[in-house]
Amino acid sequence: MSGTISVERSDKETVINIKGRFNFEMHSQFRTAYQEDTSKGQKGRKFVIDLSGTEYIDSSALGMLLLLREEAGTNESDIEIINAKPEIRKILETANFQRLFKIS
Amino acid sequence: MEDEARRIAEEIVSEYRRQLESVRFEKDQVKNLVQDAIGKLTDSFNGLRSSSDEQLGLVTGLTSSMQDDDGGEDGSDKKINIRGFVSETDKILKTFVNHIILVSRQSMEMVHRIDDLSSQMAEIVELLNDINAIAEQTNVLSLNARIVAARAGQAGEAFSVVASEVRKLARNSHEFSDRINGVVRNSKKNIESAKGIVEIMASKDMSFAIEAKGRVDEMMAEVSEIDRFTAETIHKVTGVADQISNQVGVAVMSMQFEDMVTQLSESMEKKIHVLENFSQAMDPDILFGDGLTAVDRMQRLEQVLEGQRAGFNAVDRGAVQQSSMDEGDIELF
Hints:
The structure holds 2 protein chains of 2 kinds. Chain A is α/β, with parallel strands linked by helices.
């Protein structure tokens, strides 16, 4: 029912790939995926959230993305959301996320 | 015989005057009818023009009250209109969506804290296991002490008492740690149920927001279409009002023939006046007067004819020359 998360790390970039349903049940996986980078207090790291395999997104996922943004340091880091399907992109736009994230 | 002829001549003059009088009466009637009709037509056309202007004002006012955008957000007397209503709905929807997301964000933060709490609970359980191990070791130690004390016989009696007290303490501490473990287990259950509540708070399906947004966008598009149509209609109505105004202008200008009618009527009056003098030709004195020769009579009649011709021509020269208004240069009124 819930989705899976895979992470790819390079020197400057962490790509978090979310497949299936991005909902409350993913909170622990999602937190673990970025905590390794944010807990070090390292700033200026780029996060890429790849939603190409995401089928569904609810408000808790939006809340998680906002928390990532805060914990990653809003000023120095930039967070990019890529490959969102049209329906999911609509949700992100309705939530005005294009002001807080790069959506492409 | 001569008297009879004189009487007929007088009758001819009187009949001639009567008929002229009838012509004059009808001429005056025509003049009055035309003047009256022109007055009414002019009033009516001017009324038409002002009614058309009023109608345009009403239509413009009606539509501008529908379209007026609210000047400021705090304007208490701002008019309610469709566009304002839709954009207000859009604002409320955005606020609502923002609120949901904010609640979700805070809920997720709370979930993180709860998860942290859970792992701290797990640490407590580990520490309790350590305490149990210590208690177990202490228990073994007290058992060994009792064996050693028994071997020592009477001399170890007191030491045996201490050993059994130590054993009691070990048992107590085991018991305490079990009780703490029980409390921790209950706490874990409570924490899990709290997490369940937070999950409900955090998880809202967002499709409602998209549908609502879609509907608001549709309404906006419809309002724009209505605005476009209204503007187009106003434009047409203004055009029609201009046409009416122009046509009324032409009609009012055409009413200038009243002047011509008046002038022609005056000229007719003068001609009738001249014609009245024509009756001199029937003067019984000329026709039948004593002591006049036939030559005299002829000369007198020629004089009358000449005078009449000159009088009539004089009137004709002063009369209106044009036969249509396009040729005339009458001042506009």
